[in-house]
Design brief:
Length: 468
């Protein structure tokens, strides 16, 4: 018993230390990375709107780029602390530390086996793709924090049957939905999962009534808040982006997670990794339901997949892909960690699994690239190129063309850094040099045959060009 306690204590401290290190990576990237395409769009189109207009004004819903809670919080953040890239990203940075504190409570109080604790942290924090979202002015980091906190409150509620925890849980789920509208699907999923989970249990009338009232109250409040945005987005077909199956959804996640494996030559590796992930999920779900352990989480995940298929087949609303697959992270982290915590395996295998999982933590954590995000890596040098362009401009005015990938961020820096000597040409999807710009930010591949322009700075496939 004493040896197990010591081992658990070492594991807990090690994971928290690694979690802090991952958090410092998130802080560093939030403070140093160039703003990205979607972040810049959020600022350019929404910064002048009031919190109320962010909800109801049609101009706020030209696309699904408005993550409501993130937009409101970044506006509060710059009102309190002034404008900077880091301050705009601060709400999501804080969400990381909130999630780390919550996960630390879980490994100290709810999980007993080292391997289950390691897997929880591995899924929640050490995947570079997931960690990126805590460094950005988007809703994904906030969404994962509130979603995970909801699940922990439900866990506590199932233990204590304290109705205040139930109401707190659904308040947190409302915040997760306002952070990312994709999470709206979780309201009916988790409500049905709770009802089915408590159906066969003896509970008081008070608890049974509140199992109906809590999700109903917060579900209706959330629906009232997002109804108009949803109608705008449906009218613009913004809900139809995504993929056509759970296979494609999970494959987009594994492809982004193992981004350093070239897609062109090694797509089969991504297929194999997706097969392994699907087998792992299916196995855990099967044994969880068979043994009636971890049933709420497993049943909820199955209901989620069924609901996603209903939305796709009935309404052509596609499965989450790439960044929207963050919806799976909190529930998968708890499904896997709980299953491993309940699994009856001998000490030798426990240690073997723990060593493998811990090595995976280290490998994934150190595969982070500090100069870019995975999702928006093309914007990694836009800020540097804009500052270099301003430096080149000196006292004269320079006409700058940015390929459409880079235009929102270029415009963001022209406005926020007051780069007065730069005249940025308007956003265009088609790329042409008919306006004879003095300088160009573009992929080097499309500028190779342009004899009139000379490359002055490049980062792999990106470049800044000046007219000869």
């Amino acid at each position: 018993m004493k040896e197990t306690w010591i081992n658990n204590r070492i594991i807990n401290y090690s994971l928290i230390l690694l979690g802090v290190f991952a958090g410092l990576i998130a802080v560093y990237k939030a403070a140093t990375l160039s703003f990205t395409h979607d972040e810049s769009g959020t600022f350019l189109y929404l910064n002048q709107l009031s919190p109320w207009q962010i909800l109801i004004h049609e101009s706020a819903w030209q696309s699904a780029n408005n993550h409501i809670l993130n937009t409101v919080l970044y506006k509060i953040s710059i009102h309190l602390f002034g404008h900077s890239d880091f301050i705009l990203r601060l709400p999501n940075v804080l969400a990381y530390w909130g999630c780390l504190l919550t996960a630390s409570w879980v490994i100290n109080n709810k999980l007993s086996k080292p391997v289950s604790k390691i897997v929880l942290f591995l899924i929640l924090f050490f995947n570079p793709y997931i960690l990126d979202f805590y460094s950005l002015c988007r809703g994904y980091g906030l969404s994962m924090f509130f979603h995970f906190s909801f699940l922990i409150c439900i866990w506590r509620f199932k233990d204590k049957q304290n109705v205040l925890l139930l109401y707190l849980a659904f308040a947190l789920l409302s915040l997760a939905s306002l952070s990312l509208l994709t999470n709206l699907i979780l309201f009916p999923i988790y409500t049905i999962g709770l009802w089915l989970g408590f159906k066969s249990q003896k509970i008081s009338i008070k608890v049974r009534n509140n199992l109906i009232l809590a999700p109903l109250i917060f579900g209706l409040i959330t629906l009232v808040l997002v109804l108009k945005p949803l109608l705008y987005l449906i009218g613009k077909n913004e809900l139809k982006f995504g993929v056509a199956s759970i296979w494609d959804s999970l494959k987009s996640f594994t492809t982004q997670t193992f981004y350093y494996i070239p897609k062109q030559d090694f797509m089969w590796v991504h297929d194999v990794l997706t097969i392994i992930l699907l087998i792992a999920i299916t196995t855990v779900l099967y044994f969880s339901l068979k043994d009636r352990k971890n049933a709420f989480l497993s049943l909820s995940f199955i209901l989620l997949i069924i609901a996603l298929y209903i939305l796709y087949l009935g309404f052509d609303i596609r499965f989450p892909s790439e960044r929207k697959t963050t919806i799976y992270i909190p529930i998968l982290a708890l499904i896997f960690s709980n299953h491993l915590d309940r699994l009856n395996i001998n000490q030798l295998r426990q240690k073997l699994y723990g060593v493998v999982a811990f090595c995976a933590c280290i490998l994934l954590l150190f595969s982070n690239k500090l100069d870019r995000t995975i999702e928006w890596k093309y914007d990694r040098k836009t800020k540097d190129y804009m500052l270099l362009t301003q430096e080149t401009a000196s006292e004269k005015s320079i006409v700058l063309l940015a390929e459409w990938w880079f235009t929102p961020t270029a415009e963001y820096y022209v406005k926020t850094l007051e780069l007065k000597n730069i005249v940025l040409l308007p956003y265009k999807k088609s790329f042409d040099l008919n306006d004879n710009p003095n300088m160009v930010i573009a992929h080097t591949s499309i500028m190779l045959q342009r004899d009139k322009y000379h490359l002055i700075e490049s980062d792999e496939e990106l470049g800044l060009f000046v007219k000869k």
